[in-house]
Amino acid sequence: KRADSLHKEFISMMSGYELNISEEVKHLLVKQMLFTYQQHTKQNEEDRGQLTSQINELTKKLNRLEERYVNEEMDRDMFYRYKDKFIAERKELEQSLTNTGNKVSNLEGNMKKALDIGSKLNAIWTSSDYHQKQILQNMVFPEGFTYNRNNDICRTVGVNKIFSRSAAWVHVLAENENGNITDCSNIPAFVVRAGVEPATHGFSVHCSTN
């Protein structure tokens, strides 16, 4: 397969995830992405809160233990026995906290940057050098891009969810504008579980058909 032909195939696939959207729609997509992220990481957030609370409680116990030892309220053997026990428990909790993953800083800002990139994928690709193109390719298709010589088919194993979900949501909004969808509450991507205040409340206004 000729390299220039594969390049065209790649650009064609990448174009499917380019977002031709207004600033208003971009604002709504950021809200939807934030809400989706929060739902997926809700359990981790709760686990982090519980673990942090337990770590703080053990730290308090250690401080009280040292105060009692200094004030000669317990002997040396008992002090070190409990101190070693509390330190071991705290280390275990700290490891569990690390395993829950780090909280993403400036999440909204990073999502806005991702949508900015998604709105000009082809332009960025065309103006980039070899190294920059590799970065962009790995960003959009983190699991690679393959070519099947026997079937003459190009495909990807996976697409960065920010780009794939944004493209899907934009498609939903476009279908709605064409009158093919009458109620956003019937769209899985926009459904919010009962009892949860949606971060994407604005969608109900912009998606309803007049």
Mind explaining what this structure looks like?
The chain is mostly helical. It contains nine helices and two strands. It has a two-stranded antiparallel ribbon. A hairpin with a 4-residue loop joins strand 1 and strand 2. Helix 2 crosses helix 5 and helix 3 runs antiparallel to helix 4. The protein is elongated, with a radius of gyration of 26 Å.
Strand order of the largest sheet: 1-2
Taking pLDDT < 50 over at least 5 consecutive residues as the criterion, the unreliable ranges are 181-210
Structural class: mainly alpha
- Measured by DSSP, the beta-strand proportion falls in under 5%
Overall 3D shape: elongated
Which descriptors would you attach to this protein?
two-stranded antiparallel sheet, disordered C terminus, mainly alpha, 9 helices, 210 residues
Q: What is the fold's blueprint, element by element?
A:
Layout: H1 3-15, H2 23-40, H3 42-70, H4 76-99, H5 107-118, H6 121-127, H7 130-140, E1 145-148, E2 153-156, H8 161-177, H9 203-207
Antiparallel strand pairs: 1-2
Helix pairs in contact: 2-5, 3-4
